[in-house]
Amino acid sequence: MVSSHQNQFQFDNTYSTLPERFYARLNPTPVQKPSLIKINRLLANHMGLDSNFLETSTGINILAGNQVPVGAKPIAMAYAGHQFGGWVPQLGDGRAILLGEVITPDGCRYDLHLKGSGQTPFSRNGDGRAWVGPVLREYIVSEAMAALGIPTTRALAAINTGETVMRESQFPGAVLARVASSHIRVGTFQYFSARKDLDALRILSNHIIKRHYPEAEKSSNPYITLLESVIEKQYKLIAKWMSVGFIHGVMNTDNMSIAGDTIDYGPCAFMDNYHPGKVFSSIDQMGRYAYGNQPLIAQWNLSCFASAILPLIDKNEDAAIETATDRLNCFPEQYESAWNSNFRAKIGLLEKKEGDSNLAKDLLSCMSENNADFTLTFRQLSKLSKDKDQSSEILDKKFTSLFENQSAVEAWLLKWRERLNLDNCSDTERQKAMLSVNPAYIPRNHRIEEIILAALEGNFSPFEKLNDILSRPFEEQVENIKFQKPPLPEEIVRETFCGT
Ligand code: AMP
Ligand code: MG
Known about the structure:
- By secondary structure, the chain is of the alpha+beta class.
- Helices cover 41% and strands 12% of the residues.
- The protein contains 17 helices and 12 strands.
- It has helices at 41-46, 51-54, 57-64, 132-147, 186-194, 198-212, 222-244, 294-313, 317-329, 331-346, 356-369, 374-381, 393-400, 406-420, 427-435, 445-456, 461-470; strands at residues 23-25, 35-39, 75-77, 81-83, 86-88, 96-103, 109-115, 130-131, 154-166, 170-180, 246-247, 269-270.
- The strands form 4 sheets. Strands 2, 6, 7, 8, 9 and 10 form a 6-stranded antiparallel beta sheet that branches. The chain has a two-stranded antiparallel sheet with strand order 1-3.
- The longest helix has 23 residues, at 222-244.
- It is globular and about 70 Å long.
- It binds adenosine monophosphate and magnesium ion (MG).
């Protein structure tokens, strides 16, 4: 008998009505002994789901993949992609299943997706599973990104599988129930483009337009508008990543969402001390996906997207290339403008003036030369006053002491204060604005490491606590000040590992 609660998932599946060559139909592989790590109650509420039900054994069985809810049409999606620049003609969901699309009470559509849900026809040699470390990392970081106001997939739940997963050694297995505005990637387009399947490209593009970019339907050439819209989402997204010191770590084309969400959290990391060349991913030996390369890589990935839809842009290939190139060439300027506006806000400049961007860049250079912590620099700067007087001295000192060579940053502060005086804005007003864009709390690597180590001992309270702190990143939270701090030398995490 079907429990009435099961019907609470308002599924309206559209991707699984697309042609069969877009996916493989299969159910998640059941796990031995599912138990709850965490339900994201706020997100569940937003989605119109009853979190009390999700915490029952039926709910947990659904989130673990042991039971398919009424209305779901489970599939593993096909896609291809460039991994570290090398072409892979077939990737696809090798350890994930899309249960279906859920409609929320306010009419939003979200993919409900299980990651770590067992092998699929796309698993190649993988076991289709995930262990608790990457699941908690994705949970924490994706939720932190959402709280920072950055477009991202979300974590609805984390479940223990009661099984072990073999990696460097045996680890406890877990499943992440992930929610996204969709899971369609640049690599999904490349999959069909490589097969010269023009019909599929048109179907996929029309699906995306209807779902994410309905305004393109009205355009004289919807596919050019689609390209422009995807470019716009990406330059805005990357400019946001840069403004919080986020490094995705594996910006392969299969990990770039067409809807413009941050997707596929693997060896991602937030920087502690600022350096544009920062890389954490253990597999990124050449630094292809270093912090400072992210805008360039985004443009490269977008050019792969544009190449895939060229035949839709114009039947005449030369004309299509010209149009696409023209749009792609706008990316650096558009990105720069989004970057400027984010960093102008970060340093508290309200009116747009010539030289603002250089002022922000000078601060970044000074930070990188002096090993200053990215997050704390902007947070402490937010508390300074426009005029240097006795009362400001303690705060000034707190700020300059973040830099190895304090006189260099003192010179910058002088220039900054001169510039602030050109804006017609009180200290209180400016500080409030700055504190609302410069977070106090980010998911620092050493804290993530800490929660994973505790989880391996069966203790999930550090995970709960960190998740709670990061849900209010712009609040001072005096009781949690130690979580604002960068790692001690012995706590520094230099390498992060992919989520496999
Ligand atoms: P990602 O690292 O998430 O970008 O994954 C790259 C590709 O490897 C995707 O096709 C994944 O589905 C696949 N993959 C990663 N881990 C596993 C695994 N444990 N089992 C099967 N496939 C996997
Ligand atoms: Mg991926």
